[in-house]
Amino acid sequence: DCMRSLVLVGHGSHLNSESAAAVYRYAELIRSRGLFDEVVEGYWKEEPSLRQVLKTCTYTDVTIIPMFISEGYFTETVIPREMGLGHQGAVPREGVARSLGGRTVRYTLPYGVHPAMTEVILERAREVLPDAGGDDTALIIIGHGTTRNENSNKVVHQNAELLRQRGIFSEVHALFLDEEPKVTGWREKVHAKRVVMVPFFASEGWHTLETIPEDLDLEGTVTVFSSQIEAGQAEGAPEGAGEQTVYYGKPVGTHPAVADVIVQLAEEARGASLVGGDRQSDHRAAWDVFMNLARGGLRMGEIMVTPHGGLFEVRHALDEGRSSETLTTLVTPDGLRDHTRLTESGEHRPVHTLRNLRRGWRAVLSEEDLPRAIHTLYPAVVEEGYACQTHALRSTPWPTTARRQTGIYGKVQQATPAQVEHVAEEVCGGCLKTRVWAGQRLNQTFFGGVPGAIPCAEACTFLVAEIREEVAGKRGQAGG
Ligand code: SF4
Predict the structure, then answer these.
(1) What are the boundaries of each domain within the chain?
(2) Domain 282-379: which topology?
(3) What is the dihedral of CA 82, 85, 88, 92, to 10 degrees?
(4) Closest ligand 1 atom to the C-alpha of 433?
């Protein structure tokens, strides 16, 4: 048998719950096609975290796809380092393969550099201008340019060159927000009457909705048709003599065809070795014990799991005894995830064990869906809780975590032990986890019947970011 786990890795955010949404959507799309036995997500700045996500993979055959539009600091430095891949720097075409903790792990290039993205650019162009092409139509691919974190210029130039060779458009240009040739100078370069612009960005955000249209100074002299505003607007476009009409497309990164690109990447990374995986033994042991406990009813963190005629009901432990009619009933792991992503007051929850799980819901789940639902609520807690319960948990002391940091987080190496303790007391004080990484002891876990006993094996990125603020003297100003 060939059981495989696919891991989609995104940036995530400590502040904004929408940051992870695109990765969630692709994971759902690929899951629904049933091509992989499991699709999990991992993020740098929220949970499931990069440090934990491999532990949460059910199978021994794992493929990791960075959900980034270009190569750069995240794909070459942060992700391989945080995931312990023993690789730094440019990733070769065929990807990187490693044997880690009883798993065969493959790490690929980001989806944005895959050759199939050229077709996605064309699709985006045709969405906003169905007959895009011909003597009077120019295509502009808009890139970010090289920043500290991205080298998107290379892939944008490559795509422009490929599309130029195909001769579909009278002109093809690669223009950038932050470097030459700049998108602000488009009028001097582009002569065609119809101009299709496609942003080579991962998502719809500040850049595609505000910065670009502003940089282009589109108002007045040209007519803009944007698929973001209304797809049907392009019909009956007034094309006055001497005027140029701009058709502004959606970013490539949100096109559904990206899901096909991801699947292709995973297949290519696998190459000729059709080994396939089995269930990973530590993972299986933890979940087998967990499911046995769940069949008799169990409490962990802020939740309680109750068996219910072949199904399981999960709810907030403080909602115990409330009649079901007064609670919102959820029936899928994804529904549960969406419902519990924010606190009661609408705040983002980058760390799921912070004691702020909202109340007022119940999830009714099959035996098959329960593990993913629990993973959604408390990522990696079953794996790490079981390791702790069986004295097999490996923790990472603060100095090791600090030494690993680079970029803007390199600063945390300057934090004194007193500063680390001070910030941790505040931040971790609101968290269910016990700081095993700081020497705190945990002799029992929820596996042993103590619901709130959950180990923290190493400082999370949320705490690292807070310690950085402390070192920079900025902590407390923005409310922590
Ligand atoms: Fe919780 Fe602190 Fe561990 Fe982060 S470092 S998961 S806040 S205990």
Answers:
(1) 1-114+257-279, 117-254, 282-379, 394-471
(2) Gyrase A; domain 2 (3.30.1360)
(3) -130
(4) 8
